[in-house]
Amino acid sequence: MRLASTVVVLAALGTAASQQIYDIWQTTWDRAKLFTYFQPSPDPINFVTPGPIGTADIVIDDSAVYQTIHGFGATLTDSSASLLNTLKSQNPTSYWQLLDYLFNITDGSNSAGLSYIRVPLGATDFSTNTYSYDDTSGDVNLNDFNIGAAPSNVFSTLRDILSINEWLRVHVVPWSPPGWMKSGTMDGGSLNTAYISIMANYLLKSLQGFSGEGIPIYAIGIQNEPENSNPTYPSCSMPVSIEAQIGIALRSLMDSNGFSNTKIIGYEHNWADAANYPVQLMQQAGSAFDGVSFHCYAGTVSEQASFTSQYPNKEVFFTECTGAIGSDWWSDIKWYMDNLFIGSINYGSSTGLMWNLALNSAGSPELPGSNSCQGGCRGVVQINSGGTWNVNQEFYAMAQASKAILPRDSGGPWGQRIGVSVGGNLDWALVVGAYVTGRVSSTDWNRYSIVVLNWDDSASTTWNPQPVTATIEFRGMQATYTFPVGVTTLWWYGAP
Ligand SMILES: *[C@@H]1O[C@H](CO)[C@@H](O)[C@H](O)[C@H]1NC(C)=O
């Protein structure tokens, strides 16, 4: 019955019912296209009765639907907020153009639609000075807790971003507890275990502080990089059992104080220990944590599977990797797509974030004395003196991925990952992610999108970038497109 009625509907709609590719966003290795939108010329690309496969064959399996993608972005450090605020005062038109280019999720807008921002609770290695929200030694009742210890431009920048993108998801996490809860300094060391419940209360007050500033919080972490203690900037070593106890106490406090919808995300550290710390955290406090997040600085993305294979129902976020000043533009984009913005998503992640949202051309300003970057970290955006800005390779890589999962309808659902595999002689030449985005109206067709990295450039031998003519298989139909060396995002529509 069902098959018969489908045939009738298709026949009634005629050729217009077949899938067509109208929209393409592309970034090429030679920068001839930089997150550039175009329509196939002269005609849309039709899905037709299959012929022979191309040199690569992209096979979409829309019966396999996986995690929802919450978005891409970076961390709004104090340094990023300060630079953006300077741009706003020097050249407000340029500032608002930048925010629109970064954050506008409206379908059809010329914007990456970044939607996930991490915000440190207190100082990091990208602050002007070391501070927490309560630096009164021994203040166990947190009477002197003051969210205003943070630079006010952190909150004003977040409100400006929210005015562009009301669906922005804000994820907060401290780089360290207040120094007095440790051995007197935020720089390195570990939490005095007498302060476990005080730290949970500190995190609750942080959520309340952000609420008071008009910033709703999507997720909170307990400790950034709990396996990193560095005496030159805010950081803290935190064993699994301590993070677990804080998480349990915080979950209870949040549930009884109006934050039951805010997620608690644990770990926030490197792929290399995916089989240990985050797994043990779920064993000890699985009911308190919605999931865990990963950073890129040790290990490989495939290690995310060490966690997801044991906890398939917990969420996985990818929350930090930094660009390095002086590295090669196209090599970076290849690595980011393969490991983060396609790769981490294919290993179960719902987000893809870089480190500083904005820095200047020297990778500054950094916390004086910090040995973390020493002028070597590149922001997603570069803010120049004189009120101008430009975007770096980190932007193009994540913009190409973000575009594929943004809601098609205002207020509509976000994209979900679906099944995809690559065959053909040049199966190694393409790295592919595939997504479905549902609609508000059940009669509207879903959007099916793919993000494709073609890295057939012979970069390791004699440079020779080769376009790859690929077939795309979808529901027994086939489209053909020649992917240049670069990153291509394209989509079509299909009946739900
Ligand atoms: C977002 O982009 C759309 C389409 O270009 C535009 O109409 C709208 O004004 C933008 N929204 C904001 C808040 O800038």
Automatic annotation (TrEMBL):
Pfam families: Glyco_hydro_30
Cellular component, GO, one term: membrane
Gene3D superfamilies in the cross-refs: Glycosidases, Golgi alpha-mannosidase II
Any one GO biological process: glucosylceramide catabolic process
Single GO MF descriptor: glucosylceramidase activity
InterPro entries the UniProt entry points to: GH, Glyco_hydro_30, Glyco_hydro_30_TIM-barrel, Glyco_hydro_b
Superkingdom per UniProt: Eukaryota
Residues of the Glycosyl hydrolase family 30 TIM-barrel domain: 69-366
Secretion signal, residue range per the UniProt entry: 1-18
Residue runs in coiled coils: none
Sorted UniProt keywords: Glycosidase, Hydrolase, Signal
SUPFAM superfamilies cross-referenced by the UniProt entry: (Trans)glycosidases
Family: Belongs to the glycosyl hydrolase 30 family.
Name the UniProt record assigns to this protein: Glycoside hydrolase family 30 protein
